[in-house]
DNA sequence: CGCACACTTGACACCGAGTGTCATTTATGG
DNA sequence: CCATAAATGACACTCGGTGTCAAGTGTGCG
């Protein structure tokens, strides 16, 4: 075992980022996103506004940070699927990650609350869609190399990956708006079967 | 013929909005979106900043306004399709509007240039995705009443409409990035056939 | 131990988007 | 022609975000 995989500086930096994000979400859930000012947040964290912006490039990034990671994991997972597996099946498998992401969250309540705030806030929702779209592009790149159909003038792979993500979003949304009445995986199966029965 | 379908005030208001949007797009294409300030724009239009914001609620709305209309038309068009037509076919027909939207534009060059600016600008792109998502919701409402499957806990209709929109976006993107090498309609057919051959 | 160097922080000034307010101008309709 | 409503401009203000610089804090090294 290697003694220090990350330099000390980097570790404290990540710790601060983590605490900051957590504190922010708590404040957002309590008072609302627009009502929580960066100055409030910085004060609550005991730092200056300027210092806050050295940890997060924007207020939105406080909320959107997690999706970054998720996208990369999805792309990795897809690359790890057997090459001869139909792409639709691979995508279904890969989306299992998202289920984990939700269900394994220790403080699910806050996460869900925050997720709802995002959907109700115009700018945040737009930003959220942008992140999903970036996820999708990562996965699309992977899918193109996997299928060998990498001609950018061919819209078909993009259409398939996009369709799969639509299923993911439909399931996600339903799961949130029905207060988790059904397990996420079931919703996802229903959605994906409606497009391409397997 | 009715003498005044719209009150005079409303007509001048729309005229000003139109000129403003046109002027703005010209400036954005010429100097860039971030580099064009609202003060610049207001000055160029011979009005104060405050007055500008009485015509447009935000800088983004200058660019996004058109998508509003498009979404409503799409929903209307869908409602007008025969009730027994398969939803996938109806959606394909309805998307013909978008083809018109592009191809019938008198000053296509500026429109395409602006569309590229949107895609390259993080905030604008996010906002654009948000508008598309709203379009999708309008269409989804219509699709739900049409199919009679209006249970919001059922993700299937959302998945199908979402998939269709993914095809639309895939075709749209391809059309833009390949500099209109193929007609939009063909790309759309390719994309939609890849999901559900008809 | 002490020094030099890199990194981090806070303070401050500044920019652009967007809003509230109010007085002034401009159009509309009787 | 006049009263009333709407449109405008001017001004001050908030908030997100950035550039700059000086002061603080830790780290590695001789």
TrEMBL record, chains A, B:
DNA-binding residues: 37-56
Matches recorded under InterPro entries: Homeodomain-like_sf, HTH-type_TetR-like_transc_reg, HTH_TetR, MftR_C
Domain annotation HTH tetR-type: ranges: 14-74
Keywords assigned: DNA-binding, Transcription, Transcription regulation
Highest taxon of source: Bacteria
Keyword flag Cytoplasm: no
Protein name listed in UniProt: TetR family transcriptional regulator
UniProt organism field: Agromyces ramosus
